[in-house]
User: Which sequence fits this backbone?
């Protein structure tokens, strides 16, 4: 009974194992100098998840992506492409858009009325004849940012010489292809502000060592003890956790535990049949999903058996966490605060397959809690604080609420004179790989 870690080597990509190991000193999480280095040498040079393609249905649809002090406008163009430009007017530097999402015919500055088309080309300048020096429309167009699409998600890169997104992600999109994320529907859009550095959040999602202690409920539906960690080039990580099983640290229960009863009920499976043989359940669920999936409106044909029962998490460098099941995807993204290394914004999007949305009750899957099914309209973004989660006013799923509660204390500890650097075990390999 042990976790495993393997490096995944990818032809024509840099070696998965970096040449040197990073030291996880507390200043990495608390110092402004480190935060500035991250901005100059990482955030502005790498691919970042900016938003969801479902917010760009028609020409003129836009969203604004905020990262650190930067703000980027992403728009569906007339020709059906996607443009990304810095959200700053070339007249005197005013921020053009303050609204998060919407649809516009042109990008017009509220200050003196300069107007740009959907691609950011300067079109109108009031009192143009009063610029006696002339107006160079090319030079005064909005400054572009690289943009690409994958999996129904919109990615941007502030480095004009960046490698294509496909090179950066390597074989990961192929691994995830059966899930067809682009066909899933957004059912919840949440942002919590945290008193923690963004990397404190990433670290938390990159090890299962804490699960027994912080998330005891997991013992009755997944096996985190035998998780299989994979470390990819470019700092990406993944982990496979077997689902529809119980924690092997504890005696096997005679009866199927409650969360698994709820998860197999929509499949028409009788928990009584598995009394005394709970470990047989995972394989039986795989068979049953194949057998009755189509009649319940689910298409499982492209999935491997493991993908039908297990939870995968893909952590894409630097700050994307994708928790993947056959019927549901969580995309989580801690974003750095503009100026304070002790704070971040933590976004979570919940997406579901169409059949899962139509299902009655909680549908098929391992999520402990379900959002209302049958939702059609794009949900408004819920914005709340760590205190709101602690008070039970908002929930991001019980497991994440437990993490959210703890993170501020982790960040507080980083400031102690009594702590210098982290001391990791073998099963925290994804944490180390991320920092390397
Ligand atoms: S700053 Fe935008 S028009 Fe003047
Ligand atoms: Fe956790």
Assistant:
């Amino acid at each position: 009974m042990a976790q495993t870690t393997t490096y995944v080597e990818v032809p024509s990509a840099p070696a998965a194992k970096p040449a040197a190991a990073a030291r996880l000193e507390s200043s990495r999480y608390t110092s402004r100098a480190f935060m500035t280095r991250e901005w100059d040498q990482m955030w502005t040079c790498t691919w970042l998840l900016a938003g969801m393609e479902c917010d760009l249905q028609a020409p003129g649809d836009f969203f604004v992506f905020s990262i650190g002090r930067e703000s980027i406008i992403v728009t569906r163009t007339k020709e059906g492409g996607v443009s990304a430009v810095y959200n700053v007017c070339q007249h005197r530097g005013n921020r053009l858009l303050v609204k998060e999402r919407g649809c516009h015919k042109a990008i017009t500055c509220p200050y003196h009325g300069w107007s740009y088309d959907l691609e950011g080309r300067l079109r109108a300048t009031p009192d143009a004849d009063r610029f006696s020096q002339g107006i160079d429309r090319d030079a005064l167009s909005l400054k572009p940012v690289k943009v690409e699409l994958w999996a129904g998600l919109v990615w941007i890169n502030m480095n004009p010489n960046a490698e294509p997104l496909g090179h950066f992600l390597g074989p990961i999109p192929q691994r995830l292809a059966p899930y067809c994320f682009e066909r899933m529907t957004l059912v919840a859009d949440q942002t919590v502000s945290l008193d923690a550095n963004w990397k404190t959040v990433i670290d938390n999602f990159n090890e299962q060592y804490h699960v027994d202690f912080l998330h005891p409920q997991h013992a009755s539906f997944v096996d985190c003890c035998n998780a299989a960690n994979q470390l990819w080039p470019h700092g990406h990580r993944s982990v496979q956790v077997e689902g529809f099983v119980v924690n092997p640290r504890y005696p096997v229960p005679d009866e199927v535990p409650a969360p698994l009863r709820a998860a197999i009920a929509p499949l028409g499976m009788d928990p009584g049949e598995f009394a005394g043989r709970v470990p047989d359940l995972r394989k039986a669920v795989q068979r049953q999903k194949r057998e009755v999936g189509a009649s319940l409106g689910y298409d499982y044909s492209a999935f491997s058996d493991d993908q039908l029962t297990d939870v995968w998490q893909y952590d894409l460098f630097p700050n994307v966490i994708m928790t993947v099941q056959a019927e549901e995807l969580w995309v989580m993204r801690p974003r750095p605060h503009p100026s304070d290394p002790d704070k971040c914004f933590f976004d979570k999007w919940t997406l579901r397959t169409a059949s899962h949305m139509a299902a009655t009750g909680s549908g098929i899957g391992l999520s402990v809690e379900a959002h209302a099914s049958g939702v059609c309209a794009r949900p408004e973004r819920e914005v709340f604080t760590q205190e709101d989660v602690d008070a039970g006013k908002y929930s991001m799923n019980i497991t994440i609420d437990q993490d959210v509660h703890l993170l501020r204390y982790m960040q507080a500890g980083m400031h102690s004179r009594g702590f210098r650097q982290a001391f990791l075990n073998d099963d925290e390999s994804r944490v180390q790989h991320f920092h390397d």
In short: The pocket of FE2/S2 (inorganic) cluster (ligand 1) is lined by residues 89, 91-92, 94, 109, 111-114 (CB under 6 Å). Residues 204 and 210 are 8 Å apart (CA to CA). Residues 398-414 form the longest helix (17 residues). The chain has a mean pLDDT of 94.
